[in-house]
Amino acid sequence: PSSSPLGDSHRETKSHHRPSLPAGTHYTMTNGGSINSSTHLLDLLDEPIPGVGTYDDFHTIDWVREKCKDRERHRRINSRKKESAWEMTKSLYDAWSGWLVVTLTGLSSGALAGLIDIAADWMTDLKEGICLSALWFNHEQCCWGSNETTFEERDKCPQWKTWAELIIGQAEGPGSYIMNYIMYILWALSFAFLAVSLVKVFAPYACGSGIPEIKTILSGFIIRGYLGKWTLMIKTITLVLAVASGLSLGKEGPLVHVACCCGNIFSYLFPKYSTNEAKKREVLSAASAAGVSVAFGATIGGVLFSLEEVSYYFPLKTLWRSFFAALVAAFVLRSINPFGNSRLVLFYVEYHTPWYLFELLPFILLGVFGGLWGAFFIRANIAWCRRRKSTKFGKYPVLEVIIVAAITAVIAFPNPYTRLNTSELIKELFTDCGPLESSSLCDYRNDMNASKIVDDIPDRPAGTGVYSAIWQLCLALIFKIIMTVFTFGIKVPSGLFIPSMAIGAIAGRIVGIAVEQLAYYHHDWFLFKEWCEVGADCITPGLYAMVGAAACLGGVTRMTVSLVVIVFELTGGLEYIVPLMAAVMTSKWVGDAFGREGIYEAHIRLNGYPFLDAKEEFIHTTLAADVMRPRRSDPPLAVLTQDNMTVDDIENLINETSYNGFPVIMSKESQRLVGFALRRDLTIAIESARKKQEGIVGSSRVCFAQHTPSLPAESPRPLKLRSILDMSPFTVTDHTPMEIVVDIFRKLGLRQCLVTHNGRLLGTITKKDILRHMAQMANQDPASIMFN
């Protein structure tokens, strides 16, 4: 039946004057004024179809669509808030939910970090002995209340029993050494075995550091379960076990993953975040700031880390919320006080001497060392991980962890510096030698004339203890470098911050002692003449350790600003910002000379996640037509027409292809673009229509147009799917340069983009096409970079 002109004009005014209606409302006009067809075409798409607009696992979100959805929701809430007190309350709750969710995330991250710190300390000491007076005390706490400790042997007290004393009753001698050695290895192996078994059985996603995956998730990729409650629970438990097993790994990276799990779980309590993937990413950005804040006690460093290293989209609102989340998390951790020193970190130090200009030379040398170590580590670790993926070795993760833990324990025990917990080692290397230090690193020959103990002890000649300590540190350095390459990437939670910092701190302390002795014996050299008189305290070896730690961490991760801020928040050394900046920048430049990407980007590429790195530049002169599919040899593009396909046609097309979406065109002849329909939305909408609407059969026409075409009277009822159509898909012409297309994808977070020529549809470009193209241009195998 033909529609009356009145009906048509009436419909046009309706749609012209009410553009702000939510999707699915202004398509419900019936066909003109004719009565017989109005019941026939009653459109049931008034309420949105549940499930439309959600994403499958391992798919990329469409940032533009999510932002539009959020603006629509915001408009709806704002337009209703004047109606009643209840609507007003709802709008207030909606406005506050962002702050609420980051508060909850900060509280839980701080509490979990405190728990992990305390448990890891206790279990690390369990490898060496046990406190008989109170089993839940670690070694240090055990001897706090004892009156029998002496100044030299402050860690010996009758309450603390080593395993040799308990089992064979000997405290000294070769028998007790061997017994302690065996128990140390047994505990280390049992912790490592328990950790890897829990990960393998309950939460395979809990392994690794988690930062590469979080970067990918924040760029808009979906990995279901990666931030779930099982992953959170298992990661928290196994992180304690992995750190206690003495493996060369840290708990700092995984704490970011733990915090992001908290953020993800709490975001499900608030519909504003649970239904919108782009909004959820804002909470995760704030959560990663809270994670670094509790890992290092560096609140501002955490915010900068989130901004510089992990976040993809970082509006100002997220900056404030990240700051607040980091503050809450640090506050909770400080009130738990896990280390008993009223600090948020174990290795808090304060230096009192200024640094001198000539010291920039050794600082820059440390930066060069950090850059070289970073480049070596990334190459070696990626080569080993690639080997693990491609050989049989990767099929036995439990065996691998046990072998690595056994080798680590056997080599680590004889050397006091590797036997220590890595955080304790860094603390010892950072600490300046004061009058109260009993470590062998501080075994200097004292000048007898200086009887009064002053705060600044002058530079002194090194004693035998210092030289033996330097030998042990050199061995520890080689051991740490080799073991960290093989440890990062095994199937237990493993962070990279602490081992990298330990390597840098060892190198820095060795350089520091060398410079100090040079200045002592050659104080008349023109370098030292200005600054180092006899009896002056001019070189602080602990400062060199701190600079070296920052340089090595910078070489591996390629962070700059956030790293300097984290280190000076860690150490409270505001006046040492210049040496830190010099070393970190040098290490970044040296590392970049060997390869532009940091360890996290390298792991993202190794796993083939679809991540467009904003730091990479696209330098080639190709056009959109060179990248789009279909290619000349491919079958033609799979498309839908706006009103002459049946339900069966669409279902066949969906079953025969694996594409994530289909362009909708006016007709096969004209090829003019109408919009874009996602595969998932199509299947959900057809299933829902078959259940809810009567008369929808396989031969029903599917209509994407505004007006249903006139059909014969006996034909089955048509299915209107205009509400699931994206009416404004992103299009570029075939002559658009690829560098502009890549920029559009990066800055707007697109999933796909359609290519047209004079308004006619030619093909599509997806994020994966761009990644494949970039790999081809870099002469890599494009098949190797895709996530499987």
UniProtKB/TrEMBL annotation:
Residues 1-29 are annotated as: Disordered. Coiled coil: none annotated. Strongly outwardly rectifying, electrogenic H(+)/Cl(-)exchanger which mediates the exchange of chloride ions against protons. The CLC channel family contains both chloride channels and proton-coupled anion transporters that exchange chloride or another anion for protons. The presence of conserved gating glutamate residues is typical for family members that function as antiporters. GO terms for molecular function: ATP binding; chloride:proton antiporter activity; voltage-gated chloride channel activity. GO terms for cellular component: early endosome membrane; Golgi apparatus; late endosome membrane; lysosomal membrane; plasma membrane; synaptic vesicle. Belongs to the chloride channel (TC 2.A.49) family. ClC-3/CLCN3 subfamily. Its main location: membrane. PROSITE patterns: CBS. This is Chloride channel protein. SUPFAM superfamilies: CBS-domain pair, Clc chloride channel.
